[in-house]
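Re: the 437-residue chain
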Amino acid sequence: MKAAIVGGGLMGVTLAYHLARAGHAVNIYERSPNIGGLATYLDYHGVRVDRFYHTILSSDMTMQTLIRETGVEDRLRFTETKQGFYDSGNLYPFNTPKDFMTFPPLNLFQRFRLALQVIYAQFERDAAKMDTIPVEQWLSRVSGRGVVEKVWRPLLRAKFDAEAVDVPATYIWSRLRRMMSTRQGVTSKEMMCYLIGGYFTLIEALAKHCADMGVALSTNTPVERVNIENGRAVGVRVGGEDIAADIVIATVPSPYIAELIPGGPQDYRDLLAKQQYLGVMCPLMILNKPLTPYYVLNITDPRIPFTAVVETTNLIAPEHVGGHHLIYLPKYLSPNSEIATWPDERVREEWMRYFKQMFPDFDESSVVEFLVQRARYVEPLRPMGTTNEIPQIQSPIPGMFVANTVMLYPDLSNGEAVTSLVKRVIAVVLGQGGPSA
């Protein structure tokens, strides 16, 4: 079987790896100069630095299996990480049971209700039920309004910009279940891991195995359309040339796929085009010294434009990124956000103004670089009660399959969810998993 894969991110390259291992001929077409998608890197003075921050949890077994299979397990490192909260000008740890039960922004009763919410999430297993409950209603019912205001709303704001009002409880429920899976032992330490060189270390290893198995990987090569004859996908058009394929797998964002199938069913094109995504503005601040002890510092103040301080060099050893200290200051953006139009200079001015309010003793001379990173299609947004609108793996067009982050729901967008989805896609493509997701 000859397969054409549209998109050379983690999803596309992992699909190619599994298909090639099953004995099929594969071509990957990537429009960017490099593979990797959102998981690619910056070359900063000869050092690989992630464009956007990524984690691998100690419980992410699909990712870890792939890391072992591709021979880069020796580059995997496990680290105990810490998180905190910034509230009313103060930084508070939020890691151990003691931190939990003495968290100053909450009173004793609120702390108890917060703990109850976390425990409740671990015992709730019904994703379909969670999809029918508004997230703030679910949180308020168990945690109460005070906890929602001080803890949950900042986390929702961090993830959804102004769009959190219509999202289902699934998003916080999934996050709680995923993050608690990293807690180890009676001390409840949070263990994460990373690859030296970032996610791209795995993507590069996958690409090498693919090349050894005959996969053709073309960068700077946008697919112009999926060719459809007699209602069936028969290949792709690239650079004005029609290239035949037995199957086409599209891994790019759904609105792009809608544009690639002008000959496809109009109702299906409309379904793809209406899929909602948040973008991200994520400045990377490179410092010459550490800032805090926290991997993630959550922010409760809604006036601050960025929604967390992510110091990835409290997970990644600084010597693995050239001795630098890396601070990411993300903000997810709705499609109509005015902030998305700001030039880099204004982003730096606004971000630094609030950053110095948070850290009044911060020495700006420690800033080596301030690099503004942006992406339009980052986090799929699933309105409540719309799971029936999630595209299926097998599209209505015979010979064409879809595998993108919209289909991860109810899981969050991360490497573990992506590589787990790939296994489902491979089962469907090879006829082992039925006609749909």
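The first strand starts at residue 2 and ends at 6.
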